[in-house]
Amino acid sequence: MKHFPDSEPAEVVAHGRGPRRTHARVRSASPFLIAGFAASALAPAPGHPIEFEDVTESAGIAQGHHARYFITGQAWGDYDGDGLVDLYLTDSAGPNTLYRNIGNGRFEISPLNPGVQLADHVSGGATFADYDNDGRDDLLVVGQGTPRLLQNLESGFVDVTDAMGLVHESQGESAAWGDFDSDGWLDLYIVSWYFGEDETDPRRQDRLYRNLDGTGFADVSDWLDTQRLGGPGFAATFSDLDGDGDADLYVVNDKLFGNVLWRNDGPGCGGWCFTDVSAASGADRPAFSMGISVGDFDADGDFDLYYSSVDEMVLLENAAAQGAFTWTDVSAAMQCTLPAVGWGSVFADFDNDSDLDLYLATLNPQPDLANRLYRNEFPLPFDDISPASGADDPGPTVGVARADYDADGRVDLVIGNMDSGYRLLRNVTGTTGGWLQVELEGGGPINRNAVGTRAVLRLSDGRQLHREVRIGESIGAGHGRTLHFGVGEAVPVRLSIEWPNGDRQVVENPPLEARLRLRAADATLFADDFEAEKVRSQGD
Q1: Residue closest to 434 by CA, chosen among 104, 24, 38
Q2: Phi, then psi, of 49 in degrees rounded to 5
Q3: Smaller CB count within 10 Å for the chain: N or C?
Q4: Number of continuous H segments (helices) and E segments (strands) in the chain
Q5: Residue 1, Cβ neighbours under 10 Å: how many?
Q6: Quick one: pLDDT at residue 523?
Q7: Is residue 7's pLDDT more than 70?
Q8: How many percent of the chain have pLDDT more than 90?
Q9: Averaged over 65-78, what is the pLDDT?
Q10: Which of 467, 436, 443, 464 is nearest to 453 (CA)?
């Protein structure tokens, strides 16, 4: 990692209910932009509740789901660049719907919706990603048949699937984006299950595509062991799991096939070196694996893995921070397993107490097996607080994706109920700790979505919180890309941004209750309120 000398002190203004001026000393490898807004927070007491409210109808969401294909697709992304995160939802019997966030907790059907409905496509998972680095989020929808890549031209979306080379049929479940070769362009992995239940159909194979500078995608699946690409896959994620600065790839497979961890070992091997370290590291733990979540639940500086299954859920603790790239199953010890049929899952700090809580979607309607909300009490086990949370929807829920859609400093959820529809769950937890949100934008050698960038927030009590920008987790889902830090009663001391190319930016004494926007390629450092009042919380 590169290090850079201090620059001159910079003054950052946080906007919100009242004026507040915060001084931040900045060290940066590249200039960046900061914007923010202020709000109040009280640290939660031990044993505190986390509460959600179903606001689907009042928010204007009315997307059904018909189980021609059981995967639900839910993707957050700011397609129009107005600073408010929008929402795309799929229906396998069609049509799909793009909702535009109009602020004040409300959505409307986007005027661009006709171009993304895909009424004749058997749609499953969806993600927003800026594959061409033009500053506009494009849309990928997978499902039965070929995927659909829709380029965002600002005035509308256009189907560029064939032109970009995404021509392979599959039973696509989910997609993950990551810049595995660090060339500044987002590469793509599409996860497929057995096509039409046929375990011998060649269309069951997952695909790895390399982005050719935004002009097309090359199928480089043979850079991986193709025998390991033919499992009944449900989800994947790119993440720097071994902490060496590049994007590794983790894929979860159904039917006890075993999960696959591809360690990124750089150029060579006839193209690019991916080493299958699944068995050697313990990451292959077989299950009926479905949804995947990545997060540093134990706050030791590396990213752990949680995936759902049938009659059990699996939490793998990463030992990379301790110098050993190995995984230990701590599901039983941490009490976050369940005899249910699990699907999507999400790590997020829902109560802003500084540690990552866990949400699990299930197909089970029984009160003790329906969707679960686990509050993180590390080093103690997770606490199942589902019954009083308002988030224990009876489903049957398949997908779940997170975002702070109303920009009130609390992470919200959208869930997809199979053969029913989608529910928007607003986080209304009354007493939470302080928080900080970080929006990152790449440029030059860094992909525009800043995927693969790690942010490390050092707190006044000495702890360090690690977050990473990813596209592709849970199942069929795309989370909001804003990095969210709850801090409890602590005060942020230093925010370090570690860009994928090795550059680093440091913000000293970052403000609380603020959203910072940092850009790698800016020529100057300046403050902007990005219409902060427009995105204040409901009821403020």
Answers
A1: 38
A2: -80, 160
A3: N
A4: 3, 39
A5: 9
A6: 27
A7: no
A8: 82
A9: 92
A10: 467
